[in-house]
Design brief:
Chain lengths: 408, 239
Amino acid sequence: MIMKVIDIFQETYSALTANKIRSGLTILGIVIGIGSVIAMVSIGQGAQGTIESSIQSIGSNLVLVSPGFQRGGGPVSAGRGSAQTLTQEDADAIQKEIILAKAVAPEISRRYQITAKGKNTNTQVVGTVGAYPEVRNIQIDFGSFITDQNVRSLSKVAVLGPTTRDDLFGEGTTPVGQTIRINRVDFKIIGITKSKGGSGPLNQDNTVFVPLSSAQRFLAGDTYVTAISIQAQSPDDMSVIQQQISGLLLSRHNISNPQLADFQVLNQSDIVATASAVTNTFTILLASIAGISLVVGGIGIMNMMLTTVTERTREIGLRKAIGAKRRDIGTQFLTEAVMLTFLGGAAGIGLGWVMAFLVSQFAGIATSVSIQSIFLAFGVSAAIGIIFGYYPARRAASLNPIEALRYE
Amino acid sequence: MIECKNITKIYKTGEIETVALACVTFTIKDGEFVAIMGPSGSGKSTLMHIIGCLDTPTGGEYLIDGHDVSKLSDDELADIRNRKIGFVFQSFNLLPRSSVLRNVALPLMYAGVEREKREEIAVSALNSSAFPEKFWRHLPNQLSGGMMQRVAIARALVNNPSLVLADEPTGNLDTKTGEIVLDTFQNLHARQGRTIVLITHEPYVAEHAERIITIRDGNIVEDNRNHNRRTANHDYEGN
């Protein structure tokens, strides 16, 4: 006859509450272990979320064509990105021949010193076309963006990113109509873009946009472009459009071997996948370090259970004498261990949550506690209870009742 | 009814064989009150373990109510102990964190009795060992030794066993409380017709039984009816 579940829980409750301090301290090991795993995974997942959203913010269904190696003229390679063979005509050809391309925006970007009313800054100047905001997911806060008319007429107009605006004119100002000087050429401000957030190299707010033709003529003095952004019709078209663009550009550039292409075509989902792989590794690393404390906590459980079994040898002997079977005793002690880790897991999830909250509050790192990590924590704590409780429980179950009753 | 037929028990430690029971044969009928007496090292503890199904004999047959239990597995023996035998130990062996009532009901838990039913049965067992109701919810360490032993007796009775096996039940008690406990056994025997086996090394304790089996060096040396039986005339009931 096997004990009923409610009886096992009652026995467990009275055993664990008999020595509250010891049970509490043992549970603490698991609380800290589970808490750190939850907190570390939340930091990793928060970082992943931040990186993915900044990649998404540069546009949706985006394919990027950028220059590759400059080929020809001997064995010397000028390095990746050095090629100056991408042109406005390539962009026009993509627009015309690739049906899946919804919008195409070529650009030429370089850093220049920019001055306005005595203040100056050094920032990225992007010469581009009217389709750029659509492709790169940019919104206008004040005024308007560069139009294709501006591009055709070589207008000296500029659209400022909010960070550049702040640096040159001060926060919250609307300098539409004023003039900035880029590389000793005056440009009239016609608009301000909305802030997109992000930081470091992904910060797109610290930018000045000018018409592509004006940038080529007045600033770069050349006709190549440094990148072509293409927006696909739908996410499913990404790899198809990537191949079509490669094929088109290879034939336009008269290159037969794809290995020697003087450009590279990047797919936004590839970038996301790469970044995710990096942050996943990072998350696993953090979780493994935290996992060590969980194992230590589990050893604490085992230690306590072995002590308990020894202390309660006579009790075990009595229970066996009055009819408890091996399985009754084993289940009772295993339940005790699992209950300890389970309680520790529950408290640990709370602690991890608080730790994640504090990290995002005080360290400014984005964190995210997912449902999966909570379920995982519960699963892991129950598993630790079973693994580290099994040996003590088996030892209790296999005690000889005669010797157990004689134990002093 | 319990029957021991040519029971032997030999312990082996390496090459050395120790004979604990040489060849023991006796029968205890239902309703008998038997004392098994002998000095320490006589084999009486070994015999107690075999009678109590805590151990199996090396040779011979041991039958409880006609069933041979000498070759059963550990778990099967646990089941027999649960259904057929009630233990009373020298050191009481009550669970310290459980109330009197829960201690008494413990064997019923392993017998798979419903929770509601258990308390009912435990109450009647406490009543039949004359245990005062006001202590039912107390923990064992709040009770005196004599009281604890009566809780243990109630626990031994709760499964309505074929045999109550008491191992030195008065060993940890002073003479007066010991007397009360022995009275309780005599009452169980006289009024409820319980089969009781009392293991002791003290002739004084053994004299409370109606039959005394004396064992020495693994053999039964005497098996007599006890003619000058001690009876208690304490009026402890109803307190």
